[in-house]
Every structure is written in C-alpha cells, then in structure tokens.
Amino acid sequence: MITGGNHTTLGMSELLEQKGYRLLGYSWLCSRYGIDPLYTIPCHAIAKDLYEYNFKNDNPQVNLTKPGSYFDQEYDVLGTAAHIMYAVAGEMFSPYILKKVFSSLGREDKRDIEEVLNEAPEKVVNRKVGYMYEKFTGDELDFVPSESMAKGKRAYEKLLSPNIYYTLDINTLPKHRIGQKYRICDNALGDLDIMCPMVRRSRELDLLSERNYGGELLDVFKKTEPDILDDVRDIMFMKESMMSFKVEGEEKASARRQAYENILKEAVLFSMFFSYSSPASRSILITS
Prior knowledge:
Strand content: 5-15%
Strand order of the largest sheet: 1-2-3
Largest sheet: 3 strands, mixed
Order of helices and strands: HEHEHEHHHHHHEEEHHHHH
Shape: globular
Radius of gyration: 27 Å
Mean pLDDT: 84
Number of domains: 2
Number of helices: 14
Helix content: 40-55%
C-alpha cells in the first residue's frame, strides 16, 4: 500500500523504488535520465499483487498496473524503447518529457527504437514515436515503412485524440505538420519542438468554448468611449514593451532602455491628460 503526502513526480518515483515497486513509462524515464517533469504527473508502477491492484489502487499520484502483464513478465529485459512505447500508448501526452528523453538517447537506445518500429511499422504507437523522435531531434531513424504506407494507402493517424485533448482540425494543418513517412497528422495546438500547450478536454471547458467571446468583447467595445480604449491600448503596449526586456533576459537597465521606458510613460501620460483634461488645461500646457 502506498501512503504519504504530496510528492513531486521524482520524489514519488524514488519513494516507490524504495518500497520495492517497479516503475513504468514516464516515471521510469524520469528516474533513469534525471528529468524533472516541471509538473506533477501520476507515477505508473506494477502492483505487487492482485489484492493491491484491485483494492489498494486508490492513490491519485500512483497508477498501479496489473501484475502478470507483459510488462511484469518481461520487466527485467525492458529498455528505454519499451518504456517510451508504454508512456505514449498509455499515459497523458507530455512533449516536454519525450523531448528530454529523445535528446538524451545514445546510439544503442536509438537502435532499440528502430528495431521496435520495424517489427511492426503500421502499429499506431510506433508511428507516433517515430514521428516525434525525428521531430524533436532532427535526426532520422532507419525506418522501413510497410508496403501500404510506402504506397500512401495507409490512413493517416492523428497524433493526439480530439476526444481527450483540444486539437487543431486536421483539414487546416499546414503541409509540414503532416508526416508522410509515418502517416501521422500532427494536430497539436502548437509546434512540438517550440511551444505546445496541452489542454485536456472537460465538460466545463467544452461549455465555455461554445460562448461567443468575440461578440461579447465587441459589445463591450461598442459601449466604451474611444478615448478610454485608446488609453487602455497605450498602457498595455507600454507594459508589453517593458516585459519584453525581461523575457529577453535584459535584467540590468541600460541607459538606452531606460530612455525608451521614459518616452513610453510620458507618451501614455500625455495621451491620458489630453483625453480627460479640460480644454483650458490643455491650452495652458500647449502655450507654456
């Protein structure tokens, strides 16, 4: 039985290993390669017996797999490739962990992945792993597609299930998001190797997404004085410009940056003064 307070994914993985559990998927990969997932994900491990699997499998931080399964029987000979396949097939999609893992693999691990892929080239999880490996690393795998894949007769598979995640419509995907080699449509919301937000579907989000936010905002704009909207725009532009310095790592203010910030602030204050001051006040400012 697994008890305890809140743990990070790595902390829980270490606790499970100390208690004699055998890790699977992302947990095994993070432990093996020292990866911090940045957010808490359930740790997958093999239950010690059927009683624990059936009656003690209630920790939200741990997902116990049934003993006696393939992964239980072959655990001692499983390598990185098998745990990658397990994670992609049975866990929530985590491009961050996969990219870290793929970038850490050596030649032997790469050959293991190629061997698994070529044993069953049409298997969906294999095609997804092959596509993502090449996407993340820029390195091609020695992959031999099946005859139907080579002839373009094999149907494309969505990288993410629209029933689980919010995804792009495959009919609007640009050409570079359609993987001919593995017959995969990359329908993720963003570019996997740059920035890719992952949003799981829920009933609440589905209801919210049905609202016409554009129309509601337009109604607000129509009821708001143009001068106020102009001021909001100017203030937001100023804040966005200043924040860009922090994002780009320019923490120490240079004279040039400080001068730019002062100009922005003066411009915004000047605009607001003219929007709300009286004609007499504006006349005094102009003539002084």
